[in-house]
Amino acid sequence: MTSMAESENGRLLNVNADVAAAELARALKPQPLKVVYLSEQRGLFDGAGNKISQINLDAEYNYLMSQPWCRYGTRLKIKESKELLDTLPRSSSVAIIHPSDLQKELFTDSGAGTLIRRGNTIQKTSSLSELNLVKMKEALLKSHKSLDAEAAVDAFLEFLKVNPFTAYYDENMSGLAIVLPPSADKPATIASFTITKSGWLSNLAENMFSAIKMDNPSLCWKVSEEDENLVWFFEKADGSFKRNGGVLFYCGSDFNADGLVSFSRTLSTLHTLR
């Protein structure tokens, strides 16, 4: 398909290929689950030259549009992708990839380029009174498998009553993250990160983590060595080390050896559910 058009009087017109693809996607019935743009650049890149693997529009659009590096072709591509996805089912996505990656990216999300989705709207609060405590407790219990799970969750909720925190969650609380603020000896800490099976499949975890990172460039968190999503957490971290059956992750922080030892001792005393 060439991006050409013909006017009513027979004149051939050059049409932007992205615009033509978007109009075709809107016209197709049933509507497409994925719209793929082929690009020699292999995706979109931020101001530091790093490839942007995923964009969750509901959570990141305004932030991206405010960045000084988001201009020209990058800005236009994000803007047009949003306008297109706003007219398609929420499950639809836009992928910007190199032609050589088309075969493996067409039916999967291999991470070869930039994947753009509407995503989930992530809400946040720092007050327990603004949360549905019944749903919150149910979500926290899912991440705690021990026999004393209910007692541990109750103790954690009591801890939150008297300590500052920020909760990140979606409308149905299919995902819930509790982040404790930074202190003199540690960065902000993810004390709980609970996502349902369907939430993992719908990219909710990515949306949640992106929202947390926008507020907290430096982070640390602890995950069990047996966690089924351990690989995903490794991908999100700048560094990690094992201690007492768990993996301690950090990003956005530059620790030396002594700092890591102190950091690990501090984490072991936190009210975490992982």
From TrEMBL:
<keyword id="KW-0808">Transferase</keyword>
<dbReference type="GO" id="GO:0003991">
    <property type="term" value="F:acetylglutamate kinase activity"/>
</dbReference>
<dbReference type="Pfam" id="PF04768">
    <property type="entry name" value="NAT"/>
</dbReference>
<dbReference type="InterPro" id="IPR036393">
    <property type="entry name" value="AceGlu_kinase-like_sf"/>
</dbReference>
<protein>
    <submittedName>
        <fullName>Putative N-acetyl-glutamate semialdehyde dehydrogenase</fullName>
    </submittedName>
</protein>
<dbReference type="InterPro" id="IPR006855">
    <property type="entry name" value="Vertebrate-like_GNAT_dom"/>
</dbReference>
<dbReference type="GO" id="GO:0005759">
    <property type="term" value="C:mitochondrial matrix"/>
</dbReference>
<dbReference type="GO" id="GO:0006526">
    <property type="term" value="P:L-arginine biosynthetic process"/>
</dbReference>
<dbReference type="GO" id="GO:0003942">
    <property type="term" value="F:N-acetyl-gamma-glutamyl-phosphate reductase activity"/>
</dbReference>
<feature type="domain" description="N-acetyltransferase">
    <location>
        <begin position="101"/>
        <end position="255"/>
    </location>
</feature>
<comment type="pathway">
    <text>Amino-acid biosynthesis; L-arginine biosynthesis.</text>
</comment>
